[in-house]
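In this supplementary section we document a worked example of the pipeline. Step one takes a protein sequence of length 235 as its only input; no multiple sequence alignment statistics are reported here. Step two produces a three-dimensional model, which step three serialises into structure tokens for compact storage. The input and output of this example are shown verbatim.
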Amino acid sequence: MQQFRSEAVLEFVGDAALYLSRHVGAQVVRRFHEAMQIIARPSAPGDRLHLVTHSMGTVILFDLLFAARWEDPRLDTDASTQDIRPLIAQIRNILFGLGSDQNIGMPIASIHTLGSPLALFSLLSVTGESTHDLTSNLRVLLQKLYRQRGMRSLPWCNLIHPGDPIAYPLQGVMAQMLSSAQLYVHTRDVITERSNPLINIGLFPLLKAEKAHNSYWQNRVTADTIVKNMRLQQH
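The serialised model returned by step three reads:
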């Protein structure tokens, strides 16, 4: 499995380690801020945002929106990161429930995570205080959305291909991450493919791992799940 280890798993772990470093993460913040300008406008009544994230992109998005490390005043004292806290503030101000005025901005209507390792990264906060902790700001957002949605929980579908080594279930982690705040979000793990017991043995799943990890964009279950949630939020 030398090729699989070098081209898939090690590359993913390396990307994750680089992003968690402050200086590489700061470069990502700047790129993301540029991309977010597409929706950086005053929201109109009825506007809402459906999040669809894949793989490490899930970790990056949730880190930018919720992690306490981007609120650290020490960022202002480093020439390479002096602009980061204002950029993070602008990104978070776009969304309802996150910015300096938490009652304005575009509300999130549903979340769909595809092939996501978010559960693995979130364990950083379960074991104690961490600058990568997502839970405090995430709790605030979910509570605000719960009230804004008329006491309805936010739908969050975590799609998993059984042959994807990067995808982790979320349902069991939410209770640890959010405690009572899990009432504000309805999290559901969705399996995108039926597992074949005749081939789901030995090294065969690993040989198909890369294909499985990139399969969500052409998967019917993924498309149907997203469309169903979008239609439900219209009512």
